[in-house]
Amino acid sequence: MEDNKQSILDERYMRMAGIWAENSYCRRRKVGALIVKDKMIISDGYNGTPSGFENVCEDEEGLTKPYVLHAEANAITKIARSNNSSDGATLYVTASPCIECAKLIIQAGIKRVVYGEKYRLEDGLNLLSRAGIECVFLQKSETKENTDDRHDQ
Hints:
Structural class: alpha/beta
């Protein structure tokens, strides 16, 4: 029964992460993330430019600008500016983390990652697994989401 309850919560938070991705100004791909601890959302993020920058994620050729932050990085750095702790939390993200975000996830003490789409590179997931972090893949059909593809590195 507890597994079913967790599955329902996972699907619900993934739908919310998908809705949060809609806040992104990126045209190519929109990614959303939520950090949940003790059934409370303690942080959120979506991919975009750093604070104070113009809300334009792509250059003239349509390529993602190198300083665009990933949704996970935005959610994790937001925690650093709050009184919350992500230690032992679950990260819900609409696309699987890249290797750079995986490093941040490990350092933030997040113990579980639920993602809704597989990124073309799996090095981030491999690193998370190596660190003992539980990774759960929820397909779009399960989450009823239609978020765009993961942004390229």
